[in-house]
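Continuing the batch. This is chain 6 of the set; chains 1 through 5 are on the previous pages. Same settings as before, nothing changed between runs. Recording input and output for traceability.
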Amino acid sequence: MRWFHLEEPESPLLERLGQEFGFHELEIEDCRHQRHTAKIEEYENHIFVIGNTLHFVPETLGVWFGELAMFVGHDFLITVHVGPTRSVTERVVRVKAITKLQRPDRALYELLDSMGDRYLPVLDQIGERIDQLEDEIHQNPSPKALEEIFAVRRGLTEFRRIVGSMREMVNSLMRQRAPYYRADMAAYWRDLYDHIIRALTTIENHRELLASVLEIYLTSMANRTNEVMKVLTVWATIALPLVVLTGYFGMNFPHLPMIESPYGHLVITLAMIALTVGLLFFFRKRRIF
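Output for chain 6:
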């Protein structure tokens, strides 16, 4: 088996390989324009496969995806990626060391399996962070937690889109026949398909859990707002009769009750205190606060 790996899609070497092996110009264009989800295309003497490599930043839970283009023929494999990629670096050593893997179909499986193997560990880390977010929101919901919830949700949405396309691509591979791979590959494709399905199921579980965390946050904020409004309502209710009393006796009219009494201000002050204490006792008895 001949295996060529290019880390510069713009290199003229890709065009020379395309002329030698009869690649379509649209395949070359797809290698050089890096915004594709996983797919498979069948040509006369080869198949063209694009897989999505996963890149993860644990500190920020940032998720983004690259592309690995693969030309698979009867006796050759050509891989194209922008810069180095772990999928090729790790698996090329394994393929060279094990003779039975030195076939285009087995090498293709090794590359796709390397991509799929990274999905679940990353999803496990995202799941742990969602659990931490839930605990933080129970203790102290904050705008920062809400921003992180939306960031994780965007990442999971992109994750689902990419893994969904990988599922369709692997499903198409399962229906391919010779000469692109031998009959003994069916079990390997089923195993790879199972990994992809488990990743999709985990993504959906995380999205549901994240939706419940968001609901908990919104409920907590609504409860906090209700508590604030309850306190404001209590104090406004207490202040209302006091405002009425001070307004009434503050009018500039003669002959108001106790206006000329030396004990008038004391009576009014005691009445205001009694009203305040009475209302506080009433609200406390009703368990309003």
